[in-house]
Specification:
This protein has one domain. It is about 35% helix and about 20% strand. It contains five helices and six strands; from the N terminus they run βββαβαβααβα. The protein has a four-stranded mixed sheet, with helices on both faces. A two-stranded parallel ribbon has the order 4-5. α1 runs parallel beside α2. The radius of gyration is 16 Å and the shape is globular. It starts with a strand and ends with a helix. About 35% of the residues are buried.
Length: about 180
């Protein structure tokens, strides 16, 4: 499951801007993966975060997987109804192989989101009270997170561009739906 997050308090890099963490959590394996983008909080960053997780962790953890389920809330750049996000996931599925299905969490269920509790809560505790003054500090702090359950987290910095204002024509979603 990929979850988006806003930049943590105090995460401004004096020379470079902000970090936008997107995380995935394998609850059964007790592992997490966080891709910290440095561009905009866009659908392109959300899709790139899923691609990075698949390339660096997912394909080895789930060899032969034919399908992936990506869940998220109903808003923002990683929200399931986002047309640019759906186009990005369709392109990702075409490049990586597994069929990708995106869907929402039911309204009001975020408090039962196991991924959020397993990954986001320990990350928040890990940077509690620590000035997040650079990307290195953010990546190292997230990557050092552990929990009593044995959780291990991999964190990477994503310096790629995350273009804003991507326009998706009315025909593109119809084409995706027809192919699927």
């Amino acid at each position: 499951m990929i979850r988006s997050g806003s930049a943590p308090p105090g995460s401004a890099d004096r020379d470079e801007g902000h970090a936008i963490p997107y995380g995935s959590c394998d609850v059964a394996a007790d592992t997490g993966f966080v891709n910290a983008g440095t561009g905009g909080n866009t659908a392109a960053l959300a899709a790139e975060s899923i691609r990075r997780w698949w390339q660096r962790a997912g394909k080895d953890a789930c060899p032969g997987a034919a399908r992936l389920l990506v869940t998220g809330d109903a808003g923002g750049s990683g929200g399931w109804p986002n047309r640019a996000g759906k186009a990005g996931l369709a392109a990702l599925a075409a490049r990586t192989g597994p069929q990708i299905t995106a869907g929402p969490f039911p309204p009001g269920t975020s408090r039962w989101d196991k991924s959020g509790h397993r990954l986001s809560s320990p990350i928040t505790l890990g940077w509690r009270g620590r000035p997040l003054t650079s990307y290195d500090v953010i990546i190292n702090t997230i990557g050092a997170v552990t929990a009593g359950t044995g959780l291990t987290v991999t964190a990477v910095r994503d310096t790629g561009r995350s273009p804003t204002g991507t326009t998706i024509s009315d025909e593109q979603p119809r084409d995706i739906e027809e192919r699927c």
